Amino acid sequence: MGIAIVILVIAIIGFIVTVTSSNSPTIPREQAAAELAKGDEKLKERLLGADRSEWLDIVFKEREELLESQETELYSKYGSPSKILELLMHGTINDRVYVFEETSTILIKGVPYNFSEILDFELTDENRIIYTNSRSTTKTATGSMIGRAVVGGALLGGVGAVIGGATAKRDTETYGESFERHDYTIHIMLDNLSNPRLNIHIELAYPEELVRDFVSVLTIICNRNNQSINLK
Q1: What integer pLDDT is reported at residue 200 of this predicted model?
Q2: What's the domain range around 171?
């Protein structure tokens, strides 16, 4: 876990230095402004009119103001949210999940769904082990290599002897520091024939708490839907 935090911090610092440095040789000023503005021409002009050291503050403030405006409109329509899940830091309502219990509505990436539209869900995790400062040692089980070479030679001739011998069991052991990286996706099944499946990929560096909360919310919604069906 400690290694993962260090890597994340280094990546963030590198991005800030590269984009906001007034002497950055890697990203031209106008290109960097366009990447930060993400298609917002007014924001791009504001960035180009300011010093690079102020860019990130300008972008974050702009997003906060936009989010505040979007949420004011959202709350006037659906009421106060029971739960807000942040899928991406410093994002807009499209990067959050809002649960409105009073109106039985869940807003996912800017799209509202009635609780009754949520039929089921599943969570997948494409996790992998990341090694740092590692070294590998491979051991070959030679005890039965000769036997396999004989069998291979009998079946395939001279070449078969080489093939048979090459299939000896090898065990590779990796030493060094390691951490597990998770890649979560939540698949939501909807009561909608034209759009029956909604996939939410979790992109946070440490998403475990978010995933637990999201799964808990969906579980409660599905349980309530099942109870309503049973009462009919």
Answers
A1: 92
A2: 128-181
